[in-house]
């Protein structure tokens, strides 16, 4: 098909492409081609090509660009989906709509092996949920996050890809040679990257399946020598690490306050605690701050270094993080 193109020397191609894109005349439906040292950049409107390039407009056969079909292209509306590795997750109450979306996901060009619909809230001490498998068969996947890989089974362990940015923020504060205790480690999304930063990490979780995946993920990411997995209740399984931690991760937002005495017992002379909480919007940080100060008592000076809203959790409720420094008095 013949289309108008701006023809320039190949070495000028990127500069001219950027100018055409800024002028909003670059034709995304046809391929950019190179022949005999000349690059041909298709444009949508020759009259709108910037003045000094207008004399370079020629007519040329250009192949149509293959477009990626999204679920929205098929459905005619944009469904709410979440990706975790090669699993696509839905949260649809209507069965017919859920299956319609699942069919569109599988028919689209979106890389996907399984489509799941949430079938229950997160429940129990192990924080897992039930799933309805709408397409595919497996609930195990490999999730990639900021250069690390995490093997996990969503039916057996808790994992939220929505917290990737928050995890990356916290991990970026870790110094090499720190001793870290991740009190509710799951499959290792904090522990593994912290070890990659050079920290020694004790990673504890009540879910033995999560600990099995944690071991695998430490091996997979080359940090098994710096991660010590501990299966069990952190209140009972970490006595040998008392008074040693430079940093503690407390990502159990509904009930982390019940573990603050253990956190204080694990803290070294100076220790940063990343304390996650869920509270009402009227006072999102106050309850956690008061609980931390009460647990530290007269043994530590407590300084809240960061108050951060991580995300909206429910109407009028926030998932928040307090970065708190304890210094032994």
UniProtKB/TrEMBL annotation:
The keyword tRNA processing appears for this protein: yes
Domain of life: Archaea
GO biological process: tRNA methylation
Residues annotated as domain SAM-dependent methyltransferase TRM5/TYW2-type: 81-328
SUPFAM superfamilies referenced in this protein's UniProt entry, alphabetically: S-adenosyl-L-methionine-dependent methyltransferases (SSF53335)
Gene3D superfamilies associated with the record: 3.30.70.2580, Met-10+ protein-like domains, Vaccinia Virus protein VP39
PROSITE patterns reported for this sequence: SAM_MT_TRM5_TYW2
One GO molecular-function entry: methyltransferase activity
tRNA processing found in the keyword field: yes
InterPro entries: MeTrfase_TRM5/TYW2 (IPR030382), SAM-dependent_MTases_sf (IPR029063), TRM5-TYW2-like_MTfase (IPR056743), TRM5/TYW2-like_N (IPR056744), Trm5a/b_N (IPR040601)
One Pfam assignment: TRM5-TYW2_MTfase
Keywords, alphabetical: Cytoplasm, Methyltransferase, S-adenosyl-L-methionine, Transferase, tRNA processing
The protein's name in its UniProt record: Class I SAM-dependent methyltransferase
Species this protein is from: Halorubrum tibetense
